[in-house]
Inverse folding.
């Protein structure tokens, strides 16, 4: 009988000891999970500015968990935890890099629409884009005035040297060239009506030879698609710099 009693006591003591270890194990897991969640949240919040630091923080936390696993579990479990830690670091860094805002472009990086898009614009958008080019190159007051009764003036502005700039915009397809009659109508109003000190015609197409001859006689600068491409890409000076005012 005494032997049986001792066996019962031993079983009872072993059961108490196992329960204590289980409780401690759950507490340790809870602490690790809370710490991992807090560190991961902190890493995500700081990843936008310091993605590498955030990744290192996550790696350090999981490394501590790996150390515990090495003491309490097998090496295989530790290796799996290390692999999971590495994947978590990569995910944090990738997320941070994707969410980082792009730097604002500086003045020298501001560009007008690409050449391929000029002919895709409607006439009003084209006039607005030309006015934007004028403002970019120093004509701060450039504005679109085109419409019914504009008498050939689509964009007006003041050049940096104080002249009145009058621009006519022709958003044409590549096969529709600007002819001499259109230049003559513009030439009849740009100086007498609009008092232009610099007159420019800009088109997404090209000019006929008679149109170019007339423009040269009247001091009108003609800018075709190639010239517009060079101007918008800052590869050519503003067209009003080539204007020679007509005397008399």
């Amino acid at each position: 009988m005494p032997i049986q009693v001792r066996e019962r006591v031993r079983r009872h003591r072993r059961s108490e000891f196992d329960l204590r270890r289980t409780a401690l194990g759950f507490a340790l897991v809870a602490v690790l999970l809370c710490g991992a969640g807090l560190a991961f949240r902190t890493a995500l919040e700081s990843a936008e500015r310091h993605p590498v630091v955030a990744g290192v923080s996550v790696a350090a936390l999981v490394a501590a968990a790996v150390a515990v696993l090495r003491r309490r579990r097998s090496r295989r479990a530790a290796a799996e935890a290390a692999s999971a830690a590495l994947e978590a670091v990569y995910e944090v860094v990738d997320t941070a890099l994707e969410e980082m805002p792009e730097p604002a472009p500086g003045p020298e990086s501001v560009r007008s629409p690409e050449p391929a898009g000029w002919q895709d614009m409607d006439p009003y958008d084209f006039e607005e884009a030309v006015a934007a080019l004028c403002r970019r190159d120093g004509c701060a007051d450039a504005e679109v005035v085109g419409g019914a009764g504009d008498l050939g003036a689509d964009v007006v502005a003041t050049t940096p040297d104080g002249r009145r700039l009058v621009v006519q915009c022709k958003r044409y397809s590549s096969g529709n060239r600007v002819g001499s009659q259109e230049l003559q109508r513009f030439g009849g109003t740009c100086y007498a009506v609009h008092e232009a000190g610099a007159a420019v015609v800009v088109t997404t197409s090209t000019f006929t030879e008679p149109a170019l001859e007339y423009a040269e006689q009247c001091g009108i600068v003609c800018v075709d698609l190639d010239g517009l491409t060079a101007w918008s890409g800052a590869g050519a000076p503003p067209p009003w710099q080539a204007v020679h005012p007509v005397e008399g």
In short: The first strand starts at residue 143 and ends at 144. The helical segments are 2-47, 51-72, 75-99, 123-136, 180-190, 209-218, 225-232. Residues 105-115 have pLDDT under 50 and may be disordered. Residues 2-99 form one domain.
